[in-house]
Amino acid sequence: MKKSLFFTAIIFSVFRTSASAQDLPAARKTIEMLTSVDFWGRGYTKEGMVKAAVYLCNEFKRAGLKPMEGNDYRQNFSYPVNTFPGKMEVAVNGKKLTPGRDFIIQPSSKGLHGKMKLVQTDSIFVNPAERIAIVMKDKLTWSVAQKVDDFTVLEIRKKALIASPDSIDAAIEQEFIPEFMASNICGIVRGTRHPDSILMITAHYDHLGGMGDRTFFPGANDNASGIALLLNLAKYYAKNPAPYSIAFVCFAGEEPGLKGSSYFTTFPPLPLSNIRFLINVDMVGTGEKGITVVNATILPKEFALLNKINDEHKYLSKINPRNRAANSDHYFFTEKGVPAFFIYTQGGISAYHDIDDIYSTLPLTEFADLYKLFIKFNAALMKSA
Question: What is the CA radius of gyration of the chain?
Answer without folding.
Answer: 23
